[in-house]
Amino acid sequence: MDLFPRPLKEIWDEWNLRGAVLVSLFFQILLIFCASSRKRTGNTIMTFIIWSVYLLADWVAAFAVGLISNGNKDGDKQVQSDDLLAFWAPFLLLHLGGPDTITAFALEDNELWLRHLLGLVIQFIAVAYVFLESVSNDLWIPTILMLVAGTIKYAERTRALYLACLGNFKESMLPPPDAGPNYAQLMEEYSSKKDAHVPVKIIIAPEKRASTSASSIPEEPSTGPNHISEMESGYKFFKIFKGLIVDLMFSFQGRNDSRKLFFEMLPEKAFRVIEVELNFMYDALYTKMVVVNRKIGYFFRFICTGCIAVALQLFASHHKHKIHKFDIGVTYALHIGAIGLDVIAIVKLIFSDWTIVLLKNSTAKRWIYYAREKLFFYKLWEPSKSFFDRRWSNSISQHSLIRYCLRERFNWFNKLAGIFGLKDLLDEIQYKKTVTVEEKLREFIFEELKQKAKSSAQLEEKAKSAEEKARRRGDWILSQNACHSLLWSVEKEYDECLLMWHIATDLCYYYKDKQEEKEIPDDVKEEELRRQLCRFLSEYMLYLLVMRPTMMSAVAGIGQIRFRDTCAEAKKFFRRGQQEHYLDTVVKPIEVKGDRSKSVLFDACMLAKDLRKLNKTKRWKIMRKVWVELLSYAASHCRANTHAQQLSKGGELITFVWLLMAHFGLGEQFRIQEGHARAKLIVTK
Question: Superkingdom, according to UniProt (predicted)?
């Protein structure tokens, strides 16, 4: 007894190959247009769609190659000519190469480059086998041309994965081995001259090095986020600081050069330059851009396009009276799709940031830049001043503990979601909200980090100075503002400190005293802005702690346990209908509850009461500064590869802070002294 009805099997046998080939082409079209949007949005649904298409595109193409190499011996009737079967196979090899806009969905995919190399060999053998089985066919010339094009495309993808593999990425940035001055030879010469009673002495001459100065970065009037000078600045910093991803160390001279340049920048420009820099990092790790944007890359790309165009011409002139009309249509669709995708890829390549920054002719740069801004057909996928013009999501996610506790789901629903592993996903959908990163927030973060960098620069030029600044998480701010009574709140573990300040920020945000009610409108507006900035940072940091635990693993500690215990205590407290300011918190919570529960709810209430004792202007000023220190502490202590992973998920503000701190010389990545000193023997009189 057949599992499926015979008519259904006949439909499958007739359409499986046709359907697989057309679906494979459709997936390629989706990827070339939509894959790059994942760096511009953190939307879960969009990310899931791109992930699904990315996986299915390879599977469908490999499945179709398998059907063709199998020869459709199971009664396949959809293709009347074996010649056409052999001709279709290289198109699928072309599809397996994928578009330029995506080679890896996640950073871990790059580590599988060897598997893709093996896949290239196996699929090439399968396609070559199909061709050799029908070597006498009339379409052997266009088939060979398409086989060349498909092999080039697949090899490009494999090469891109190889270069983006973190081990190879690091290897490519290591300088050539340097044994330094020949100590043995120098001392032999010194000893021999001493024995000969020749007056000689050793002089240590510092080695000269080319210094990057502010003049090396072109300063032109800025006209927009894509301005040429910002692209060039971003690219130069990318070439220097891409080693951060693989934990390379940098010299103090490099720190001083970068710090000097960023001290002279306005906040808006600094963030745009970092945006460009991170965009180059994204391209290097997740696309073919590093492979194709070089002379040999252009050479192979034009060979590939030429092969496809000639193959189309040869097929068009071929006698097709023995081929089914629908199959002719499928073949033309494959051809037109291949040429269209290649032309789109070439146009995007020519007008890319990479091409603009690598061109040495300034006139050509300007022409390409202005053409990119004005041409209608380019704006179809890169329209100005829109979603597609962004290089990252330009947003931060928000999560509130109080909102989470007050909007509790039914217990049975939580248990059901937990069984299927969907609880975290549902929490994100229900409790996470997204806000735009306002210019005022960027400006405040920039100025705070700039002041921190300046104060460390005024101290001794030692790594410890910058490292100590990066390790601060509120204690220095509180000490500088004579708030010693609040120091207890930042002397705890980082996750405990973050949760307490988050709850205290929420309590202070909703609390208004009589003085605040009498404020004049202008004061209210300014005060509201300060309060909003505090709340944005507070809810963003809680989002990272609770919903991005992998990224915060270096500093999170038992943050998720504390969060759950605090939520449990908060829900119990809210059910009693009590209000925080009715409680007497003279006795510390830990003395009453012990250490079994990790809840920090009432510690946060004590902190909120202490904060309310401050003048409201001073209160919000201190709270903003503490939150920036908590953010910068997390940014500098998160593993570098977690920052790189977020580039393909819309990006994170904490990644911008991480890179901005590196440019300001704040952190532990500056360890290398300025270079070798060269010793010389000088004969004295």
Answer: Eukaryota
